[in-house]
Amino acid sequence: MIPIDQYAYVNRLAMVHPLEKMAFSVVFLLFAITTKDVLISLITFFVMSVFILIAAKIPLKTYIKLLLLPGFFLLSSLVSILLSFTTTSELPSHVAQWHIGNVTIFIGTASIDTAYHLFFSVLASVSCLYFLTLTTPITAITYAMRKLKIPTVFVDLCDLTYRFIFVFLTSMQRIYQAQQSRLGYQHKKQWLQSAGFLVTSMFKDVFKRAHELNNAMQSRCYDESISEPFYHYKTSRRNWYAIAGCCCLLLIVYFTLGGLLT
């Protein structure tokens, strides 16, 4: 079990109705994405972090590590936004420029503004995603999807896809350890060859397990529904009132203080 999945089952918010947690995170996510306001994004990140660390009791070290995971992709995106290239002599408003032959590399003020807003929007969006994934197990998510009348085939596909992530990880770890015990990654040529064998063997093993799972389901009279929820959640009016209150507060903050940090 990977740490994210483990925390999703044992955190203090695991028994809260999944639709309430989904609505809570989606409200903040939509506000952060649609308004693209830095203050709203900071409020979203702060609120989600408080619920993750204090309400759900997720360790701070784990949360920081998870925030660093998308950091590389965010950094590469910001660099590509900040740097602009041109061969003309006339440049728009900029703060720095470099010349390499006939090409001019510059950082425009408009690019800085775009990267500035993008950074905080992504930070808020990632915190909303982590709140949902760290507090809601996959069984609760599929339960909520059934409550929303999403087609059963789509729900089952999501469930199977999530379950086969662990099959991939287990198979990859087992094959990698076997290769390491045979010194399969000592040299560059061996590394490339072993990596190729690892990928092909992993896919073969996963497809074999999928075929075995299909045979097992067919032998048990599969009726187009993999599993039914074993736990029924209770809704809380207090939580829904709190979500509505958060929505109203975000609207008030946006219309009164929106653009304060731009």
- How much is the average pLDDT? 85
Number of domains in the coordinates? 2
Order of neighbouring strands in the sheet with most strands: 1-3-2
The chain-level structural class is: mainly alpha
Categorize the overall geometry. Answer: flat
Q: Summarize the helix and strand pattern as letters.
A: HHHHHEEEHHHHH
Q: Would you kindly provide a written description of the structure presented here, covering whatever features stand out?
A:
The chain is 71% helix and 6% strand. It has 262 residues and is mainly alpha-helical. The chain folds into two domains: 1-136 and 232-262, no CATH class; 151-228. A three-stranded antiparallel β-sheet has the order 1-3-2. Strand 2 (94-100) and strand 3 form a beta hairpin. Helix 3 packs parallel to helix 6 (109-135) and helix 7 runs antiparallel to helix 8 (152-181). The chain is flat and about 70 Å long. The two termini are 42 Å apart.
SSE layout and pairings?
Layout: H1 3-10, H2 18-35, H3 38-55, H4 60-68, H5 71-82, E1 83-86, E2 94-100, E3 103-108, H6 109-135, H7 138-147, H8 152-181, H9 188-219, H10 237-257
Antiparallel strand pairs: 1-3, 2-3
Summary keywords:
single chain, 262 residues, mainly alpha, 10 helices
Outline:
By secondary structure, this protein is mainly alpha-helical.
